[in-house]
Amino acid sequence: MFSTLLSNSFFEDLENQADCKTCPSGYYCLAGSTNYTDTPCPNGHYCLNGTTADNQYPCPAGIFNNLPVN
């Protein structure tokens, strides 16, 4: 049974684990995530470890990210 109490920025891909895993850079994790690979960081944004939303870190003015998962 996967935990339904996971907060944003964490995921758990294994059942019955005591600890959650921090969402890795290049991805963002929504509450209750069991897989981070389905939420890659979108173009024009970057995602640090523990990013909680797709638009949390927009690229600064004059800089862009045209590659997903960065």
Automatic annotation (TrEMBL):
Which InterPro entries is this protein grouped with? Growth_fac_rcpt_cys_sf
What is the protein's given name? Uncharacterized protein
Natural source organism: Mya arenaria (Soft-shell clam)
